């Protein structure tokens, strides 16, 4: 295939016959799915199911992350013409990646959402596929981790974030974007000794044993030293990656509910994700893209690239 195929290819989200391979549909037209993958609810033979959870309850400052999955999908239409630069292989050619669509839920029945998320992700994993999730606020990662832990045991976690999200929250009924990791550790679904948070730049009195590689240390020590430390912490454990887009500095990702200056540049995030090649990835998510606060679309573009890197990471150890 080549770029001239755009004159014939359209609506590949529905019309593509081969689940693998690149797509040359015009970026500005056609039905929008993540990386122009086929929309399907049939996960037989699927390696990765990309799914959206357009849920936000209450964020610290600016709501709107419910629109994140839609914006990330649209931004991703710039990417499926070529294999991701620098990997040296084509994950879309190797893997059967589909767009599983969004999770359905009753917006007026918030309390049922956690169980719905857990069942949604659990169903993906039970099919044999790995979940790559587009959020949504960071609360969604808690029920995702519950689903993962049921099937894989306590999780080794790599968290990219401006906030550690381990503030005390012992109320099981609270649905809070800022305490997902506190609850995950207290519930035993995350192993803090094998977990690391990267890019942190807000104070928290207790990080519950998670290794903190804050933004100043990354800027001071560099990407390679940070990667070495991450690998020391997680060892050879299967790992889940959660990427809060506010890990990036607001200069690179202004469209988030909780922007904090002094964060990662996009090139640092790209280098860190690429440098994790070889980890045994269980799944991952990118959360808190809030497009109403970024008319340029840069935040959604970053979110789309993060999700693509997660796919490439998953495929790296399965190249045969």
UniProtKB/TrEMBL annotation:
Cofactor: Mn(2+)
InterPro entries, sorted: Agmatinase-rel, Ureohydrolase, Ureohydrolase_dom_sf, Ureohydrolase_Mn_BS
Keywords: Hydrolase, Manganese, Metal-binding
EC number(s) stated in the UniProt entry for this protein: 3.5.3.11
Gene3D superfamilies: Ureohydrolase domain (3.40.800.10)
Pfam families in the cross-refs: Arginase
Protein's GO biological process: putrescine biosynthetic process from arginine, via agmatine
Gene Ontology MF annotations: agmatinase activity; metal ion binding
Cofactor: how and how many bound: Binds 2 manganese ions per subunit.
Binding site for Mn(2+): 138, 161, 163, 165, 244, 246
Family named by the database record: Belongs to the arginase family. Agmatinase subfamily.
Protein name: Agmatinase
Organism (species): Paracoccus amoyensis
Gene symbol of the encoding locus: speB
